[in-house]
């Protein structure tokens, strides 16, 4: 009997300490619908960009994302991202994405995998969203200071 009570108390304690992650919150369908369609990254900027190299999404230099095209399908939370800068290696991959109620953009790069099997991803903040543009803002650590990397998106069609 003591073991059952002890196990019950430990279970309650463990479950009550569980933190909310970006993936465990509800979806913001209005923000998602506003992003559906085809987009182009018109700029990537951050303080010190002239001297600091940033590898975005563990794929390529952040400057290679300028001119990249992104397709967001809001009903299935799928899409595609293609790097096509002439000075960088071309790359295209399917993606899975959603925007949660906290304004966080959750992205998985699938590389021919199913979204359920991909255990890692990226969480960025959505900002300045209009019908023709929006920003995704990533936080990086530069010398112990958190710095914003801003990806500016412009609607293609």
CATH architecture grouping: Beta Barrel
Low-confidence stretches: 2-20
- The CATH class assignment is Mainly Beta
End-to-end CA span = 66 Å
Protein name: Lipocalin family protein
Keywords: Signal
Organism: Flavobacterium buctense
Signal peptide: 1-21
Describe the structure.
The chain is mainly beta. The chain is built from 2 helices and 10 strands. The longest helix has 15 residues.
Top keywords for this entry?
signal; Lipocalin; Lipocalin family protein; two-stranded antiparallel ribbon; disordered N terminus; globular; 157 residues; 2 helices; 10 strands; mainly beta
What can be said about this structure in brief?
Keywords: Signal. With 157 residues, this protein is mainly beta. It is 14% helix and 42% strand.
Topology summary:
Blueprint: H1 2-16, H2 29-35, E1 37-45, E2 55-56, E3 60-61, E4 69-73, E5 78-83, E6 91-99, E7 104-109, E8 122-127, E9 133-142, E10 145-155
Antiparallel strand pairs: 1-4, 1-10, 2-3, 4-5, 5-6, 6-7, 7-8, 8-9, 9-10
């Amino acid at each position: 009997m003591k073991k059952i009570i002890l196990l019950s108390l430990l279970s309650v304690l463990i479950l009550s300490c569980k933190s909310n992650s970006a993936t465990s919150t509800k979806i913001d369908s209005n923000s998602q619908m506003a992003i559906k369609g085809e987009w182009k990254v018109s700029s990537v900027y951050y303080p010190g960009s002239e001297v600091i190299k940033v590898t975005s999404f563990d794929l390529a230099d952040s400057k290679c994302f300028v001119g990249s095209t992104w397709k967001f399908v809001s009903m299935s939370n799928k899409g595609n991202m293609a790097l096509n800068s002439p000075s960088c290696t071309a790359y295209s991959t399917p993606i899975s994405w959603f925007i949660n109620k906290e304004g966080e953009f959750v992205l998985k790069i699938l590389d021919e995998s199913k979204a359920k099997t991909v255990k890692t991803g990226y969480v960025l903040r959505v900002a300045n969203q209009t019908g023709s543009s929006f920003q995704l803002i990533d936080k990086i650590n530069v010398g112990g200071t958190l710095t914003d990397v801003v990806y500016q998106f412009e609607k293609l069609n």
